[in-house]
Amino acid sequence: MTASTARTDTRPSPRKRAGNGAARQHDTDEIGLDALVGHAGYAVRRFQIWIFQDFIRTLGEVGIRPTQYSVLTVIGANPGLSQMAVANRLGIERARLVHLLDSLEQRKLVKRIKSKADRRSHALHLTAPGETALAKFKRLAAEHERHVEEKIGKANRQRLLRILAGFT
Amino acid sequence: MTASTARTDTRPSPRKRAGNGAARQHDTDEIGLDALVGHAGYAVRRFQIWIFQDFIRTLGEVGIRPTQYSVLTVIGANPGLSQMAVANRLGIERARLVHLLDSLEQRKLVKRIKSKADRRSHALHLTAPGETALAKFKRLAAEHERHVEEKIGKANRQRLLRILAGFT
DNA sequence: TATTGTTATACTCTATAACTATA
DNA sequence: TATAGTTATAGAGTATAACAATA
After folding, report:
1. Chain C positions under 7 Å from a protein CB?
2. A26 and B156 in contact by Cβ < 8 A?
3. Which of A60, A125, A152, A157 yields a CA-CA distance of 20 to 30 A from A43?
4. What is the DSSP letter of B93?
């Protein structure tokens, strides 16, 4: 369709080829993205990957991933929630939340308490060590957030949050 | 930590409870997110999920997912690329690209041509039907992009693309 | 020795379906 | 009958490691 006039075989480009082997025929940044540029979804996906990688790295020392952090935060701010309520609020499948909570409960950060009002459901609470741990996770998450600021700029981060406020 | 004064058991909230059963103790939008609000990563993740779902829905009639679309677009704009080049450009694992291409090749949209210059590598090209199909995919993708505009506003979409331009 | 494409494994995440115990 | 939590399965997606052919 477009750009059909581009290189049509795999001969290495004129420059490069000298080095000690390993002749790449394109440098990554000389490959056109064509229609991809201009798609919000593509930019957002790449950004999201960057953000999650930084989050995972920054909270690596405490072994907390983004989804686990979101679960702990919601339970911390709303003690007593049922699993269904947490799953709906965060857009997580209830089947998946079961495993997430299994792991958090094994680490003694969260406890499931049988509800007396509705014996089918569990009331979720942070343990005392869970409260302490979450405070630390929040400090590390704030550090991660500063990395985001450094990456895209303070004002842009604010704009982004404003634009996407409807999705939380 | 915060909000420890919130409901601490699972008794249903005062309102609601009337209906014909199904007493939810919290409505989704009355559950606080606390620290999650203010995290760029959370907003971006929710937005990305929304975007991908709309993309998958809008291109559902042709059975093309976001990653497949990005692969076809890059090959269309840069015929003759090797698998490594495509994988690096899009940030996809080369092992994963193998399966993506297997599927696109079975559907006769893409062909792998043995390179004569470097017999280890394959030159990737769209087939003739692949070119035609991609044109249609691009029209549908543009429709999806209009959905994004409707969701966040034309100006905000532009701002977003400008803020995230560095991640493509 | 290093790289390309490939195969294989494992773990995360999403999407379902079905089961149990309750309601 | 419907719902909460659970178990199980299947498919994407990510992250690795290893292998054959080739450089």
Report:
1. 2-9, 12-18, 21-23
2. no
3. A60
4. -
Domain A40-167 has CATH 1.10.10.10: yes
Looking at residue B82, its pLDDT comes to: 97
CB contact at 8 A, A126 and A75: yes
- Provide, in whole angstroms, the distance separating residue A62's CA from nucleotide C4's C1': 38
**Both tokens assigned to A134:** 């979450």
pLDDT digits (tens, 9 = 90+) for A6-34: 332 333 333 333 333 333 445 566 787 77
DSSP chain A: --STTS--S-PPPSS---SSS---SS-GGGS--GGGTT-HHHHHHHHHHHHHHHHHHHTGGGT--HHHHHHHHHHHHSTT--HHHHHHHHT--HHHHHHHHHHHHHTTSEEEEE-SSSTT-EEEEE-HHHHHHHHHHHHHHHHHHHHHHHHH-HHHHHHHHHHTGGG-
Mean pLDDT, residues A136-164:
96
Of B106, B112, B103, B108, the closest CA to residue B68 belongs to: B103
Q: Give the position of tokens 């087939």.
A: B127
Using CA atoms, how far apart are residues A138 and B35, in angstroms rounded to an integer?
Answer: 8
CA dist B117 → A21, B67, B80, B113 (Å): 13, 29, 12, 12
Task: Output the average pLDDT for chain A.
Answer: 84
With an 8 Å Cβ cutoff, are A76 and B1 in contact?
Answer: yes
Residues lower than pLDDT 70 in chain B: 1-29
Percentage of chain A modeled with pLDDT above 90: 76
Count of Cβ atoms closer than 10 Å to residue B72 Cβ: 24
Domain boundaries, chain A: 40-167
| Spatial separation of the C-alpha atoms in residues A54 and B27, rounded to whole Å | 33
Q: Are strands B110-114 and B122-126 parallel, antiparallel or unpaired?
A: antiparallel
